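Design request, tokens follow.
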């Protein structure tokens, strides 16, 4: 099951109904996000579909200030992600949405806020520790 309840299914259908008739534009937008590996572009679209937007206090920093820069060639990386953002913005402009950012800068702040608020927690499953102990010859009981 993809949804927790029928109410969630109905809510999702209602939100996505705004995109009816725009399927090619939506596909192009999502395809671009997948191609460049930026999950925040479709999440931004989802926020825009809700129409409420985010609190202005969250929209402080543009996207390129919210990502970790690589040690090698950070300037080229910045140019690349700015280009990805611009391409996403151009694709977003082709969609008819109730609440679209007024400018590329506003869109970059929306994406930046989503990037800053993303939390990834990575930890090993408890079985991993047991398997490592067995592999090390300790039997896993100790």
């Amino acid at each position: 099951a993809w949804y927790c309840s029928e109410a969630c299914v109905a809510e999702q259908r209602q939100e996505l109904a705004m995109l009816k008739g725009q399927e090619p534009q939506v596909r192009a937008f999502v395809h671009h996000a997948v191609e460049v590996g930026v999950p925040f572009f479709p999440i931004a679209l989802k926020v825009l579909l809700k129409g409420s937007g985010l609190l202005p206090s969250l929209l402080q920093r543009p996207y390129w200030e919210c990502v970790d820069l690589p040690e090698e060639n950070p300037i080229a990386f910045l140019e690349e992600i700015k280009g990805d953002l611009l391409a996403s913005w151009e694709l977003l402009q082709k969609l008819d949405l109730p609440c679209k950012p007024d400018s590329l800068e506003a869109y970059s702040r929306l994406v930046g806020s989503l990037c800053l608020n993303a939390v990834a927690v990575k930890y090993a499953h408890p079985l991993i520790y047991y398997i490592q102990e067995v592999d090390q010859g300790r039997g896993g009981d100790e």
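Comment from the thread starter after seeing the answer: thanks! The radius of gyration is 20 Å.
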